[in-house]
Amino acid sequence: MAVYTEVTDDDLAHLIAEYGLGELMSYKGIAEGVENTNYMVHTSKGTFILTLYERRVNTADLPYFMGLLEHLNKEGVSCPLPVRNRNGEVLTEISGRTAAIVTFLEGVWVRRPKTVHCHAVGRALAELHLAGKSFPMCRSNALGLAGWHDINERLGAKADEIAPGLATLINYELAYLDRAWPKTLPTGVIHADLFPDNVFFIGEKLSGLIDFYFACNDASAYDLAIALNAWCFETDCAFNATKARALVTGYQSLRPLTAAERLAFPVLARGAALRFLLTRALDWLHTDRNALVKPHDPIAYVRRLRFHQEVTSPGEYGLEPAA
Ligand SMILES: Nc1ncnc2c1ncn2[C@@H]1O[C@H](COP(=O)(O)OP(=O)(O)OP(=O)(O)O)[C@@H](O)[C@H]1O
Ligand SMILES: N[C@@H](CCO)C(=O)O
Predict the structure, then answer these.
(1) Where in the numbering of this chain does the Aminoglycoside phosphotransferase domain appear (predicted)?
(2) CATH architecture of the domain formed by 115-317
């Protein structure tokens, strides 16, 4: 479940009226997602998603996220469009939370992605990166190298409660990334969390992207490395080279990587694996065992990291040397 905050019928009907969305017909809390409270809302004007922002979203960042969604829609990227209320504002308040209403996106997320889905995701990610070029706002990545160090400090030796030796692995990896992390790659808007549950498909056709609440400005190829970690490993954590090739080929069909990006890709893949390992480890240690929202498994990202540590060339990810 992820309905942390309840709304009352009266408050919601009032809100819908403020947004000029006709009459409230029905609504229900959405079980999926772990960060925010989401409701699906049916009104006489259509279906919408109401999001109440919870603990991890800094409300100061919301104008960036909302502005980005509006910008991407304008550029033809399929993603939720924030609805403006009668005062022309996107953000509102309900049940003591900052909230927004966005358009509903048709489609479902794919539990078992196939190669064809990976190709489509790669292409959509490149489309997003190209569309993001003209977005004027900037948000630095709070979960970059410095942020990883901060999380590691909070974890400390407790990481070993998740798996023996985990603290050592993390410290080793951070020391490596401090030396090897590329600093001059092309940057722009990145999604930063393009996991299967954030990409909707109708059949094999990608219908849109959601959940831009980690979006920021950072190295474009790092975003591709995040997607590779999320889409190209099987449930037993085995790397699927065919899916990786499909992902990077889909991406490069619109935005070919530079030679420097290809060369740096194995390091980016390690950083991306460590980023999700760290946030998952922190959640793992801080989530009550009886909590309704189960934390994601950090070990799946330990295994991905160990895989990337053994990689010797970008070719293993399907990235041939530049012609
Ligand atoms: N615009 C939308 N159109 C259709 N469904 C949506 C939309 N936005 C959210 N949802 C639904 O709500 C669910 C949770 O949304 P989202 O992933 O944004 O939540 P979250 O709490 O930020 O979750 P997390 O960051 O853990 O993925 C989605 O899986 C989807 O079912
Ligand atoms: N995609 C993240 C969850 C936060 O959105 C993870 O799988 O760890």
Answers:
(1) 27-257
(2) Alpha-Beta Complex (3.90)
pTM, to two decimals: 0.96
Which of 251-265, 269-283, 291-305 is the least confident region? 291-305
Which of 38, 97, 199, 296 for mutating ligand 1's site (highest number of atoms within 8 Å of CB)?
A: 38
Rounded to an integer, the average pLDDT of 7-12 is 96
SS (H, E, C) the chain: CCCCCCCCHHHHHHHHHHCCCCCEEEEEECCCCCCCEEEEEEECCEEEEEEECCCCCCHHHHHHHHHHHHHHHHCCCCCCCECCCCCCCCEEEECCEEEEEEECCCCECCCCCCHHHHHHHHHHHHHHHHHHCCCCCCCECCCCHHHHHHHHHHHHHHHHHCCCCHHHHHHHHHHHHHHHCCCCCCEEEECCCCCHHHEEEECCEEEEECCCCCCEEEEHHHHHHHHHHHHCECCCCCECHHHHHHHHHHHHCCCCCCHHHHHHHHHHHHHHHHHHHHHHHHHHHHCCCCCCCCCCCCHHHHHHHHHHHHCCCHHHHCCCCCC
Residues 6+ apart with CB under 8 A from 176: 270
Instruction: Write down the pLDDT at residue 55.
Output: 77
Domain ranges of the chain: 9-103, 115-317
Average pLDDT, the chain: 96
Tell me, in angstroms, the distance from the centre of ligand 1 to residue 257's CA. Answer: 30
Measured from CB, residues less than 6 Å from any atom of ligand 1 are: 2, 30, 32-36, 38, 49, 80, 102, 104-105, 197-198, 210-211, 213
Topology at the third CATH level for domain 9-103: Phosphorylase Kinase; domain 1 (3.30.200)
Q: State the complex-level ipTM.
A: 0.93
